[in-house]
Fold each of these.
Amino acid sequence: MNSIKKLIVIGIFLMQVVSCEDLSSFSTNPDEIYSGNIVQPEKVRKGFGKFSRMELTINIDSIDEKPGSIKVESQEETEEPEVIFDNVSLRPVYSLKYDTLSNFDFPTGRLKNYLFLAPITSAKYHNGVALIVISLMSDGKIEVRIIFGENTLFGIFVLEKQKKS
C-alpha cells in the first residue's frame, strides 16, 4: 500500500511538471526576430495589403513590463510598402493580469495568449492605438492578430523565429 501511495504522489508530481510549460524559448535574443506574412484569405484581412509582413521581438521573462516590439509593413503587389507600426513597443495592460480575461484561450495548439496595445505610427490612422493578440503556438510559431477600429484594421500574421538579416 505504501508503494502505491508513492506511485500516486510521483504521478501527480509528473503531471504538474508537464503542465507547467517553460515558455522562455519563445523569447528572442538580440540577433533574432519573429517574421512572417499576413494570412491570405481576404475575409480575415482588412486594411492590410496582400503582401503585408510583420517582425516581432518578444521577451517572455518580462512580458508584463517590456514585452517586445512590432514592425508591420502593409503592401499590395504594385505598391511601395506602407509602415503601419515602426518598431513600436508593445504596451502591457497592467490591470489585466488581475482579471480572468488574462486566462483567455483559443482552441487548436495555443500554449498561451497575451493581449497588448500598440501605437500606430502611420498618420493615416490618426495616431491610433491597436489591440494586439499574441498566441504562442505548440509548433514554436507565434500567431499575431491586430485589431483597430470597427472595420479599419484586422489581420492575422503567422511568424517564425529567425536570425536578423
Amino acid sequence: MDEEMQSLKKNQTWELVPLPRGVKLVEPSKFKARLVAKGFSQKEGIDYHEVFSPVVKHKTIRVLLAMVSALDMELEKLDMKTAFLHGNLEEQIYMSQPDGFLEVGKENHVCLLKKSLYGLKQSLRQWYKRFDAFMISYNFV
C-alpha cells in the first residue's frame, strides 16, 4: 500500500483542502494494495456526468490476431501502470484521507481529487480521453 500511496502522491492525484460546507464525501477503500474510491455512492449529475468509453469487441481482436498470423507480422502489447490515475477529473470530488495515511497537521482536511481514482464511475472515460488526446497529438489516429 505504501507503493500505491507514493504513486498517488507523485501523480498529484489530490490536494488536501478543508471540506466545504454541504459537500458529500466519497469514502476510500483499500482493495488488495490499491486505494479505491467507493464510486457506488456517486450521484449522476453531481459527482459525474459522462461514463461512456469505447471498448474493443472480441470479434475485432480475433480478426486482428488472424491478420497478424496470416501476414506473419509481429504484435506488441503495452501495459500502462496506474492508467486510471492519469485521467483528469472534470468534477469536484472530495474524499476522506485514507486510513493510516493521514497527513500530520492536516488531519481534518480532505482530499480534493484532481485525477481519476480506481472505483470512480468516470475513471475509465477520463483515461480514454487522455489516451485519445495523446494518440491524436502524435497523429496515430
Amino acid sequence: MPSGCSPTWRKGTTEALPGPESPDGPRLEAKVVAALERIGRALRVQLWNAVKRRGLSPVQAQILLHLRAHDETLGRVGSIAREFGLTPPTVSDSVSALEAKGLVERSASAADGRAAVLTLTPAGHAAARELQSWAAGLEEAIAAMPPADQEAALQFLLRLIEQLQRRGSITVARVCFTCRFFRPAAEQTAGEPYCALLEKPLPPAALRVDCPEHEPASA
C-alpha cells in the first residue's frame, strides 16, 4: 500500500474494509483469517459459558476432555503441554487445581513406573461427560448446512492444520494428511484418499481430526 494510505477498519472486527487503493477489498486469505477469528471468538464464549458454571478454567476443562478422549500414553503433563501449546508449569498448576477438586489423580505409568500419568476420577469422568456438549451450539449450526459443505469445510480445515504444523504454529496434529499411512487421491486408481493402515478408502466424512493410530509422515 502506498505511503500515507491506510485501510479502513470496521469496529469489532479484524478485517479491513476496502480503501481507495484496494478496489477489490481485502485479500482472500485475509478474509479467511477474519472469518476464523470470529468463529474462534464464538468458541471461546461457548467454552467459557460451559466452564464457569462448573467452577473450572478453560484450561482445566480442556485437560478433562483430553484425558477422557485419550489413553495414558497422552496423559502426562508434558504430553498435554505439547497438545495445547502451553508450558509444563501452566499445565501442572491446572492439574493441581483439578486434583484439589477431586477430578484428576496421578498414578504410576504401567509402561514406565517412574513416570506419572494423569487419570480421571469418577467425578472427573462425570464432569468431562457434562463438558462434552460445550460446543453444541456450533455443531447445530454446522449440521444445518448441506453435507457437501460440511465435508468441504472439514477438508479445508484439516489442510490448514497440516500447513500450520509444517510452519511450527501447531505442535501436535494427528490428522490424516500428516500421517505416514495416508495415500492421496491422486495415487489411487479409485480417485479417493486411502488409509494403508485400515486398508480402506477415506471419503471426506471419514477423515480424522485426532486419530489414535496416527504416525507422523517423514519430512
Amino acid sequence: MVDTKGNTVTYTWNCTGGDCYPGQIDYNSYRVTFYLESRPDTFSGAAYSQLIQTLYRVRSVLVNLVGVSPIRAYKLSYATSALTNRSLLA
C-alpha cells in the first residue's frame, strides 16, 4: 500500500486454525515484528461458516530499521480474568 506521500507499507499475516495473527509490518525503512506464544486459554468460535480457533497471543514486539539493530522492543505481560478466565494485558 502506498500513501499520498509515497510511503509504502506492507502487512504480513500468519494464519493458522482459521485465525490470522500479525507477522510483521514494513513501513519505509522500519520493520515491526510480532512474536507469538501459545495461549493457555485457547477458544473456538465460528464466523462466516468457518470454525476459528484462537491458539496464540502476541508475546513481544520488535521495532528496527531494516538491516540495523533493534531500536525498540516491547514484552507483553498477561493476567487471567477472574470473570472469564481469558488473557488480559497486564
